[in-house]
Write a structure and sequence with these properties.
Blueprint: E1 2-5, H1 9-21, H2 31-39, E2 43-51, E3 54-65, E4 71-75, E5 80-81, H3 87-103, E6 106-111, E7 125-126, E8 135-140, H4 145-150, H5 154-165, E9 169-172, H6 176-190, H7 197-206, E10 210-216, E11 222-231, E12 234-242, H8 251-265, E13 270-272, H9 288-295, E14 300-303, E15 308-311, H10 314-327
Parallel strand pairs: 4-6, 12-13
Antiparallel strand pairs: 1-2, 2-3, 3-4, 3-5, 6-15, 7-15, 8-13, 8-14, 9-10, 10-11, 11-12
Amino acid sequence: MEVRMLEAAQDLVSYDAWVCGNPSGNLWQSLQWKKYQASLGRETRIYALMEGTHILAAALVVIDRTSFGLSTWDIPRGPVWGLGNRNSDLGHFLETIVSDAKANHCLSLYLSPVTLLPATSYQLAASSRHEQPAATRIIDLTLAEEEILSHMKPKGRYNISVAGKHGIRVEQSHDISAFMGLLKQTGQRDNFTILSARHYESFLKELPGSFLFLALSQQGVPIAGLLGVIWASKAYYYYGASDHAERALMAPYALQWAAMRFCKAQGCTSYDLLGVSPPDAQPDHPWQGVSTFKEKFGGQVVTYPQEQQIVLRPRTYKLLQLKRKLLG
């Protein structure tokens, strides 16, 4: 048994088949995500715990370089494994990655697997980031369209019909500039920081399976947009934006329904609304508003373990956190 970094084309083909077939496999541990991260200038590595030619566990690592040669390592929605009760093997696998991270001047390693990690010799601590949500809402696309609608809240179905009565037209598009205009409005309205235009452009152009839908008013003006992606048989709603002045037209509801129907037609079995406040969250949870919106589409709430981190350079990490706090 050995830990290897997978780089050869044939090894990556084998990895792709393995992660697609693993019940815990997901977009963020896929070759699609690796390609997208590379388009943003980020280094990625794929580690695999091998027994002969068989993969037992794997982790796609995204490396962000910071000042002074330092870095942070992220294993989004990973690692992924199929070891049964062989937790000691997974512990050895993780310790190999941590050892490499430490040698790479890593400040902190983040992990957000689908299921709980076994104990390791390194101290895991809860992360304060919200990169990967602790809960999400997933729509079953194996149902007939009428059944999907019937599982929605009455207000969700009603708002979809309201959008139709107002003549809202939803079209697949490549007009990322129109989406960016709506996103800037949404960021200012809801007081959140949006990423650079390059980030969204790369998402649409470089992430295989991605799609953009725009909702147009009767006058043909874009008033809402949705960026999503399909991986294997799973669809993910990723980014949304809307014109608040046209909120009475209910365009975001028409968008979500159009995206669900599109993904179902592509053979997807699920549609992940990507992030809601956990069932036990306080009323002031930052995602409470968007959770109320997503709840109207029905589906099942799925929870995940909280993201963990291993701080590898505690003193430097604390100094940088203090600097950000003072400047923030």
